[in-house]
UniProtKB/TrEMBL annotation:
Similarity comment text for this entry: Belongs to the peptidase S54 family.
Lineage of the organism: Bacteria, Pseudomonadati, Bacteroidota, Flavobacteriia, Flavobacteriales
Domain of life: Bacteria
Database matches in Gene3D superfamilies: Rhomboid-like
GO molecular function, one term: peptidase activity
Transmembrane annotation, as ranges: 6-24, 44-66, 78-97, 104-125, 131-151, 163-183, 189-207
SUPFAM superfamilies linked to this entry: Rhomboid-like
Name used for this protein in its record: Membrane associated rhomboid family serine protease
Subcellular locations according to the entry: Membrane
Length: 214
């Protein structure tokens, strides 16, 4: 693991622990549709370093730890940071667009940023083998990526669980686009997988075109 990914994990842990201890701090920096609409744009970024509890924090940081190495093997630390930061912002911005009429909507977590890193690693190495509990066999990375985004679309539309599905989708879109921008050769080397990974993104745009373009 490179220093930069460890530094991000440490920043998330320290910021989140402060939020666990201080409710005023937590409420000041969490994502809130109403607060952002009032002009507190910093929440689009700061909320990505807060988490609801230790399990939420641990799951996100474990996923970041697992998938960061693949991205850092292909990209520079600066490119990695750009993917992380823009995926975080894209996840929260998409949440703002989709939930703009829900002034009560709030969220925290690095899920958008982490999903961006996960999706970027899949674009770069789509044939990676992943073991997903409780499946007894490994599945290809691109199959997992497509399935995960379709589940996120379903979860967003049906409000499944206390999970920021919208942030996952926004982060994945950023991770997908930036990976291709930074390494266009993936369109030649992994043409079919790269195109298939775009399918749920196109479906999202079609389903949410009113929220996205109004």
């Amino acid at each position: 693991m490179k220093f930069i990914s460890i530094a991000l994990i440490v920043a998330n842990v320290l910021f989140s622990i402060q939020g666990f201890k201080d409710l005023v701090f937590f409420n000041k920096y969490k994502f809130s549709v109403l607060a952002v609409q009032r002009g507190e744009k910093y929440r689009l970024f700061s909320s990505g370093f807060l988490h609801a509890d230790y399990m939420h924090l641990g799951f996100n940081m474990f996923a970041l730890y697992l998938f960061s190495e693949t991205v850092l093997n292909y990209f520079s630390p600066l490119q990695y940071l750009i993917i992380y930061g823009l995926s975080l912002l894209a996840g929260n911005y998409l949440s703002l667009l989709i939930h703009k009429s829900e002034s009560y909507y709030t969220a925290v977590g690095a899920s958008g940023a982490v999903t961006g890193i996960v999706y970027a690693s899949i674009v770069l190495f789509p044939d990676m083998s992943l073991y997903i509990f409780p499946l007894p066999i490994a599945i290809k990375g691109y199959v997992f990526g497509i399935g995960y985004l379709f589940y996120s679309i379903y979860g967003m539309k049906n409000q499944v669980g206390n999970i920021g599905h919208t942030a996952h989708l926004g982060g994945a879109v950023a991770g997908y686009v930036l990976s291709i921008v930074f390494m266009p050769s993936v369109l030649q080397v992994h043409s079919l997988q790269t195109l298939l990974l775009a399918v749920p993104i196109v479906v999202l745009i079609v389903l949410q075109k009113k929220n996205l373009f109004q």
